[in-house]
Structure prediction request, 1383 residues.
Amino acid sequence: MELGKITILLLLAIQIAIGELSAEVPNPPAEVPNSPAEVPNPPVQESANALHLKINRVVAETSLPELKSEQCDDYEFVRRVYLDLVGRSPNIEEVTSFVERQSENRRSELIDELLQSPEFVDHFASVLDIMLMERRGGKRIAQTDWIAFLKKTLREQWAFDHIVQTVVAANGRGENRAAAKFVLDRDVEPNALTRDIARIFLGRDLQCAQCHDHPNITDYYQSEYYELHAFLTRSYLFEDPADKKTPYVGEKAVGESEYQSVFTEDPTARAIPGLPGDLTLDAEPRFEGETAYVIEPSKDAAGQPKFSRRIELARILTSPANDLFARNVANRLWGHMMGRGLVHPVDFDHSENPPANPQLLEVLTDGLRECRFDIRAFLSQVARSKVYQSSVDAPTQTPSSQANLSRAIAQAERQLQQVKDDNQAAKAFLNPFEQALGDRKAQLADLDTEITAKSAERNELLKKIQELEKNAVALKKSLADSEEKLAAKSKQDEESTEVPPEVAKLKSAVEAAKQAVQEHTTAVGTNQASSAELLRKLAALKSRRIGIADSVAEARGALLAARRMQATDRPASHHQQHLAYLKAANKVVESQRDLEQIGEELIQNQQTLKTQVQRRDQVQATMAEMKEREAALQESYAQSMEKLAAKRKESTDRKQTIDELAVALERSQQLAQALADEQLLELVQSTTNRHKKLQTELAQFDAQIAQLQNASVEAKRVTETAKAARVNTEKAFQTAVESVHKQETQLAKLREQKRSAEVEFQLIDDDWIDTQERRLIMRRLKPLSPEQMAGTTISALRLDQLYRSSAESDWKKNNKDVELNREDPKHQSQLKGFFDKRVAQVRDTFISLYAAPAGAPQDVFSATADQALFLANDSRVQSWLTPAEGTLVKHLIDLESVDEIARSMFLGILCRPPTDNEINASKNHLATRNDDRTKAIQEMVWGLISSAEFRFNH
Amino acid sequence: MKAKYACQSLSHTIARRDFLGALGGAGAIAGMNTIPAFQSQLLAAQVAAKKKRVLTVFLSGGASQLETWDPKPGTLNGGPFRAIPTSVPGVHISELLPLSAQHMHRMALIRSVNTAESDHGRSRYRIERGHKKSPTADYPHLGALVAKTTELDKSTLPGHIHVSSGSGSRGSNAAYLGPKYSSIAVGTSGGLRNSQLPGGMTATLNDSRQSFRRMANEQFLQRRRTAETDAYLQSFEQAEQLMQERDLFDVSKEPSKLLEEYGDHDLGKQCLLARRLVEHGISYVQVSHSNYDTHAENFNFHIEQLGEFDQAFSALITDLDRRGLLESTLVLVLTEFGRTPKINNRYGRDHWGRGFSIAMAGCGLQHGGVIGAMSDDGMQIKDREVNQADLFHTYLEALGIDPTAEFDIGGRMIPIADPTGEAIEELLA
Prediction:
């Protein structure tokens, strides 16, 4: 690209940059005071610039308009804010007095009252302890001393950065000895300190980068690890032999961090102390000649250098220039209030794990800086924000119709593409500037190479001249020697007449030497001339270099201006997240639709089955009728056959009789004719008539039989027809049974599908809930920390009352001859000591069951069977339910009305009045247990402290 | 390149799916559709049949390799005991283990373990955690690893149990895997802690308070549910089930004749309880036997301790084999380190991490295999040196778990086993 063009672009860029600057004049950076005394009480910010209003704005801008959650009611709010700020739920009186407060600003008032209460100091000391020490226990600095230190910082309103600075720089001496716990309890081990300082104060878990660049995360480098390590490598654990081996932090004035990747063949590198983001230690003072120590390290003394890299680290780490620190603290404090950091996990801030809401994190980071790292001011603003005070209910609106979502998704995809295109375009725009700068730099490099070469050449020449001059001196000396010798010889030989050969030799040597000197002188001259020539050339080159260096600076300025104007890498992550969010919503809608479809299909199929079953039953009924009829027909056929057989037999019998009669007649006739007996003949005649009649009768009878036979054939046919019909119906029945069976199988399959669709839906819904929580649309249900569990148990069951009286009896046991004076500050603090011990027992019980292991992140949730077994059966839990003066259980037992019992129980334990349903359930429970009211009350109280509502902060 | 985030990891999804599937049993949960119990039980049974488990006998204090699995009779450092033949021709072990010798065809030995540590705590850390102790990171106990990696079933039982003489609480040895996988101590007398209703409470009264608890949950969960509230509710159902199954943790339910086989002493009881537990599908059970730190009177102590061990171990293997459990159970006999070959002037042997033995039995192994060898004086590893990382790779492979896979811990990918190790392939079936 031509220079002219660049200049035009440059001017353009600068103009635009200036325009931008003047449009948005930033506040001058506030000096961060390091001494707590200088931290003023922050003014109550209620202007439009108040942080909580900024939070409201950015949250509103970055969420879907149709998915707004409601604000929580006063009951929900009071429990939430007590838990977050003082570590316990409010008791009945506190709940009641809050909800009955007339002031419109009662929420803000309560926030500030709690922040100013001594309980905040106690609670937040434990929050800071867990954040900084992750339950490591008291290895070298007693836990009580450390907690006392933290409480002091909170009482005196130390700014967060000041606390951190003190803790990192502490060496275990002086007033704030306990502050050294962070360093001492990690054994002053540079790797342990590097890891935890990066994790806890910069939000970057660099552990993998100890041995190589992080394999999964592109922006965690091994060099980064060692640059931080280099600040710490000189510090060491010193146990004072003269002081019962009390541990201190010693430091040497020497020692560097060197590293080599275990993956690559790169040579060992030495790290320059620094923090990510170009915060390097550039001016390390040297103490040439004098000692570098205030106290020399020795067997008897912890070293203390004049320049301490660790103290320097403490300063740079917490300096306003360190964006990562402010961002990390803002994220952690936000995480404390909301149950999850915007960057989650809080110590895993990197480009592949962007904050859930980058704009919000920026607002919070700036807000934290603006309130000068004042913990109370920051928490107070967060607690005032709408998103903090939003209801735990799922948004009432479902994620709109799918058509809307599809449109929104398409739009988000376009936006994402736009950002990507913009980035591409910006890159293209910046490319010539980068190219120009590259070219200039290359030119400069070429020139530098030439200058270096020429300088080297000249140096070579100068060396040669020097050599020649040295030689010339030697030669001149030898010429002088020769001449001297020649002169002596000549004098000695003046007397002699002939020239001795030695003299001749000497003369020629002198001549030769003269010659040589002459030649040398010439050579020197020539070389000097070339050197002068080179020097001229070099001067020319150098003056050219100035021009080129200027143009490099110019090109760099142009690039910077262009960059300001056209930032590349406009973060796409926000758009990506928005898209992911819409898609998650879409997935829920789809999954729900699938589930509904399957449900409908199931209902349809159930209907079909019903029809089929009806039909089957009808066919079965018909079949039964047919069978009956068939049987009847068969019966009648059989009867007719029987009758036919009987008639046939009768016919045969008759025929036989007739035939016998015929034979008898014939004989009688013959006899009668022979005898010619008239009478007899007459008899024969009448008998013959009778025979004829009989024959006629028989013929008639046979005709009847033939009729009967015809009828029976007909009956047989009818029966067979009926049978065929019956067989057909049976087949139809079989088919009906089969189709019912098929339908049943189909239904079972559908039910199975529905079940897995339900599981699928639950999983998608889990993701959806998670997404909404991350996007701050749904408030996260925060599991109580073990400390909050203890505090809430004590507060809900009013064990504090019990422990107060136990503290008095404990005191009396220990002070047998003294009268207790509750006004005496000494007695008061002793009583508090006994009281705290009781509380600590409860706390330790919960910690042992509910806390994550020491040294691990403490914000993980686990629900295990042994926790549930503890709640169900442990004698300690039973003892908390024992009625004793002042406790909730005792109070409930003393109440007469069931409504009152239910009300006090729910207000005391869950900080809200019971619903009608719950009042009825309580009534029923008590009604069935008239025999043992105390136990019944204990059971209900147990049921409530074991409920999910109690276990979570909502 | 890509890290997976908290709630989308595969293991989370599977566990969640299992959980949602298992809800059928606890039909009382509001807003949840139920799945027939038989289905989940069937699944559980299928998984349980394939499920591998680990039973570790830890010889605490550092058992002598020369008096156990790697005798060197007749050498300078060999000590007074003979070597005896075993059920595998050519393999000899100390005469102090005559019963165990008969099980060699079900076992495998490693005689060249080097932890390079001679401090009890540090060396034990290496053996139990598979890593060297580091100031910057804590690693989970083998039991936590096994419990986590074999967790696919819906068992209500805890996965990681340490049997002890008294009943105790939960250990803190699961590091980044979280307290769910920390060891739970179960005693040979007390059974599982808090698994009995408090005094004066009957089953009916318990039902009544549980139903009030469920009622209280309904109101809240109609407003809001999350995976975490589900898990919390489920933990109570699990507890109820554990109470029903509490006999499982009660060694006195085993026939007394069987206890005689194991030996009527602590170790015998512990081994019997351990068998009872693995039989019921618990992933990892560890028992320990102490008094091996024999700086003085090494030989007398080993006669005494190994007498108990030999009986209990042999009975354990016999019992597991008889029940068909040896096919799915990996038995480990570990110790934090061995003892110096050189005998000191108190007839003792001192700490020795640079070459000692461990024994294994059961699933996934080349039975009868012996890996590694020490020099004749016992001072140098002559062949096939292995360290704790190699051992962990070997255990996991024997269980069918890929030791080179990674856990996704809230977006951090953490290798299951120390990636510098390698499984002892020739020892694996």
